Amino acid sequence: MSNQNRQITLAARPDGFPSESDFKLATSDIPKPNEGECLVQGIYLSVDPYMRGRMRARPSYVAPVQVGEVMGGGVVGRVLESRCEDLKQGDIVEGVLGWQEYAVAPQKALRKVDPALAPISTALGVLGMPGLTAYFGLLDVADPRPGETVVVSGAAGAVGATVGQIAKIRGCRVVGIAGSDEKVRQIVDELGFDAAFNYKTTKDYADELKRLAPDGVDVYFDNVGGAITDAVFSLLNVRARVSVCGQISQYNLEATEMGPRLLWHLIVKRAKAQGFLIFDYANRYNEGLRQLSEWVKQGKIRYRERIAEGIENAPKAFLEMMQGKNIGKQLVRLSPE
Amino acid sequence: MSNQNRQITLAARPDGFPSESDFKLATSDIPKPNEGECLVQGIYLSVDPYMRGRMRARPSYVAPVQVGEVMGGGVVGRVLESRCEDLKQGDIVEGVLGWQEYAVAPQKALRKVDPALAPISTALGVLGMPGLTAYFGLLDVADPRPGETVVVSGAAGAVGATVGQIAKIRGCRVVGIAGSDEKVRQIVDELGFDAAFNYKTTKDYADELKRLAPDGVDVYFDNVGGAITDAVFSLLNVRARVSVCGQISQYNLEATEMGPRLLWHLIVKRAKAQGFLIFDYANRYNEGLRQLSEWVKQGKIRYRERIAEGIENAPKAFLEMMQGKNIGKQLVRLSPE
């Protein structure tokens, strides 16, 4: 162990789609834990779409990262030194520790991960924030019933892929929308979606959806917004539920995009569109993780990961995830397991 | 009683804002009731924003009126001849009898109105479809709590004025948005809204709302859509509820209007937008009418009416209502009480 802590800081606020020059590799000393804190060495770092929002100056549901500050993000790591009552050296933990190799955190900011349950990387994916987002966003916000049609955008991402599989467990017809033929093939052949289409090679989304969801759309889990969402809204059924999870198509726009006004659809279809943030379900995380773990163990939920090597490659991994190059969860390996 | 039945038929499908030439005064014989039906002479006809939708060829939640057909609409009238078991000559009834002086209807299409409870015209207003729309759209869809801020657009119309007063009964701060200084004065001074503004003379709706709703917006009851709704969305509080009742600003547009994409607000604020149609509450109408009648009797809900004279003036009354010339419920008198 060197005593240098390599970190990625925000070098500049991006204008439009971010680039590697908006990030900077910096080093600091490895911090020391105070009483009630642990020193954690990161093993995996998660890069997620919401981080684009944190790179802006304007406040959102998470505070902006300041220029010069370490980028925020979820990490799974091992406890190197514990001054916490309930954690000991060698324990595997998960927490929002940032884009860096080492971090100090109080016990309440760390969740203990059981390496016997599943690979520890899943604590950032299907058994972590993305899995919980899929679980509560689908089941609590939209509550799909057997036989209903569920459409998922961003369907091959960490959240979308899990949403589709939970909807299948619920007995729904599941249609995915994704950004490559390989993603479409994978979610249908490997994850059990009933149908999917590649929006990058499809001219008329609504026409294609009509074909793949001939009974209309009862539940729409929206990760992307924009023109895809416009098309799905035009096909909502009576009493449809739209779970608004993300709007990744909009995150790199500097001004609000204009689109067709959608509220009329909600009246005609007596439908609801509801946004949610996973943080609001904190007191139900255990329930979600218990169920997701069981499904993963039973093979009912599968997951894929794409892993970049080294903190120095975190910006590239983030940018590739924003471009949709990942299938499943995009991670960055910070140190060997 | 002549034996001519004067009617207003749809003469042409309007292009944009309708005009009187889109309607035609026609006459037919007064129809005769079959077994199980009543002949009803209309006393008041209701003209409502939703009728604009029925003038289009494309289907909505109600079937289009065909060119040459009598316009649809709610009527309060008296039974002239009864071949129904539970109705007798002289009874006052309400039903969807259309823009005409006489109509025949089966008993199940008629609701008996008690003239001792309230003026019979209220069966088309505060104790009819608009009142029930306000009641269920506010309480069931948005469920405002004491101390919350409720914003109502179309606030001086039959629905909006009732929404604001129910929200006051619930203990909310109520801000109305209406289209004239007289309407603003009336809903604040006579109906007890806490504040209101005239959108026709206000430059920046969001700025004005920030001033009048300094704690943000917990509930938005939307009758109008468009730029007013854009402004309200930008001020929604965490866990806000938007009850989407109407989009009158859009009804005369031949193409879908473009506007800023709004779904991101729902995520950041964990808010929901839910459309509804009053017909879906049919099995709870009695509950709503009982409560509304009580509030009207107690003076807690007041109402205003604007009455045009004669079936021949129904098109003009409808057009003036669409232009916002009415305060409260716009009616057409078909015959003396």
In short:
Two copies of one chain form a homodimer. By secondary structure, the first copy, chain A, is α/β, with parallel strands linked by helices.
Strand portion of chain A? 25-35%
- In total, the number of domains of chain A comes to 2
**Helix-strand string of chain A:** EEEHEEEEHEHEHEHEHEEHEHEHE
The number of E-state strands of chain A comes to 16
CATH topology of the largest domain in chain A: Rossmann fold
Assigned CATH architecture of the largest domain in chain A: 3-Layer(aba) Sandwich
Task: Give the overall shape of chain A.
Answer: globular
Largest interface: A-B, 34 and 34 residues
| DSSP helix fraction of chain A | 10-25%
**CATH C-level category of the largest domain in chain A:** Alpha Beta
Name the structural class of chain A: alpha/beta
**Biggest sheet architecture of chain A:** 7 strands, mixed
- What is the assigned CATH homologous superfamily of the largest domain in chain A? NAD(P)-binding Rossmann-like Domain
The total of helices of chain A stands at: 9
Radius of gyration of chain A over alpha carbons?
20 Å
The pLDDT mean of chain A sits at: 96
Distance between the termini of chain A: 14 Å
Poorly predicted segments of chain A: none
What oligomeric state is this? homodimer
